[in-house]
């Protein structure tokens, strides 16, 4: 079936310039007096930018008057991810959080979709997390393994060849150079450095982006889910019909494992609203209204469960 032609959409909101070349768009679908003091910062995945994930509109409409949601534009948005990194993302996100701290007195939550989930985990548990502006919670929606997804859709021969080529470039000191597209048969329509390729796809299971693979050992998960800070609760929303997750992977068991690992540390996962969102595809595009509303209710429930007191 031919994809219907795109129709233009107008959205009501405020554009915030939080850095000299970066902005965030805050939805204001309804009048609120006083303005909402709690905000959710939405981070898209690979190739995403402003308004490319449609369910955010539904979240904006459903949030209580004390909350709003904003979509953040990063250097890695759209096709920029191939030459960027999680470390650069979280530094930019910290600037965004710091900006909103100057105009909002309530809670700030990071909400990642797909590769945006890696940004949330990096922000909360990465090597430099203590240097970043504090947040009050995180949401990860469609937290999939890029490595496993690439292997599934690319095939083992192209996958292993591309990783070998990238590793050779790194060993030669060319980690920030662009991996020739012939090495991965132009699987991604954008330039990707050797370093970022291995961050996503390293066969050694040690890539910076490799937070959610089903074959990670407990020792690795203890550094991420086991290292979650107690002051920033996490909500996990795994799409039940995610096209980038192999059917052989038990999604519920994987989420349960992450929750179990978190309990071995000091972190807190909102088990009331976390779980598998049945019927949901990766970004819920074209999903039935009841599936989208199911996701939205979990997000709103998580937000309502956070204390309205500001994190000072």
Q: Could you explain how this protein is built, in words?
A:
By secondary structure, the chain is an alpha/beta fold. The chain is 34% helix and 14% strand. The protein has 9 helices and 8 strands. It has an 8-stranded mixed β-sheet, with helices on both faces.
Instruction: Kindly report how far apart the N and C termini lie.
Output: 52 Å
How many β-strand stretches?
A: 8
Instruction: Using the alpha-carbon principal axes, give the shape.
Output: globular
Oligomeric state of this protein: single chain
**Largest sheet report:** 8 strands, mixed
Report mean pLDDT, rounded to a whole number.
Answer: 94
What labels describe this entry?
312 residues, alpha/beta, 9 helices, 14% strand
Quick recap:
This protein has 312 residues and is α/β, with parallel strands linked by helices. It has helices at residues 55-62, 86-101, 115-125, 146-154, 156-171, 194-201, 218-224, 251-263, 289-305, and strands at residues 13-19, 22-27, 38-43, 67-72, 108-113, 137-141, 234-239, 275-277.
Which secondary structure elements does this structure contain, and how are they paired or packed?
Layout: E1 13-19, E2 22-27, E3 38-43, H1 55-62, E4 67-72, H2 86-101, E5 108-113, H3 115-125, E6 137-141, H4 146-154, H5 156-171, H6 194-201, H7 218-224, E7 234-239, H8 251-263, E8 275-277, H9 289-305
Parallel strand pairs: 3-4, 3-5, 5-6, 6-7, 7-8
Antiparallel strand pairs: 1-2, 2-4
Helix pairs in contact: 1-9, 2-3, 4-5, 5-6
């Amino acid at each position: 079936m031919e994809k219907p032609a795109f129709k233009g959409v107008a959205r009501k909101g405020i554009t915030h310039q939080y850095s000299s070349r970066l902005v965030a768009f805050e939805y204001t679908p309804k009048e609120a007096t006083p303005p909402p003091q709690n905000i959710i910062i939405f981070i898209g995945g690979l190739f995403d930018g402003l308004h490319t994930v449609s369910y955010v509109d539904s979240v904006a409409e459903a949030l209580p008057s004390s909350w709003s949601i904003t979509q953040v534009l990063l250097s890695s948005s759209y096709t920029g991810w191939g030459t960027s990194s999680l470390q650069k993302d979280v530094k930019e996100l910290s600037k965004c959080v710091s900006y909103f701290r100057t105009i909002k007195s309530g809670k700030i939550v990071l909400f990642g979709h797909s590769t945006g989930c890696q940004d949330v985990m990096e922000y909360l548990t990465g090597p430099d997390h203590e240097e970043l502006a504090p947040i009050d919670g995180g949401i990860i929606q469609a937290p999939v393994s890029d490595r496993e997804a690439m292997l599934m859709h690319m095939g083992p021969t192209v996958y292993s060849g591309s990783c070998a080529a990238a590793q050779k470039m790194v060993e030669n000191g060319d980690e920030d150079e662009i991996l020739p597209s012939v090495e991965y048969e132009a699987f991604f329509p954008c330039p990707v450095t050797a370093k970022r390729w291995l961050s996503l796809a390293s066969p050694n299971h040690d890539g910076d982006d490799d937070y959610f693979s089903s074959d990670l050992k407990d020792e690795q998960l203890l550094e991420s889910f086991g290292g979650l800070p107690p002051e920033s609760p996490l909500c996990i929303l795994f799409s039940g019909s995610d096209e980038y997750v192999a059917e052989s992977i038990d999604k519920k068991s994987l989420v349960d494992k992450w929750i179990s690992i978190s309990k071995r540390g000091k972190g807190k996962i909102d088990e009331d609203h976390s779980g598998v969102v049945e019927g949901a595809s990766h970004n819920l595009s074209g999903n039935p209204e009841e599936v989208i509303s199911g996701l939205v209710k979990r997000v709103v429930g998580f937000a309502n469960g956070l204390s309205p007191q500001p994190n000072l």
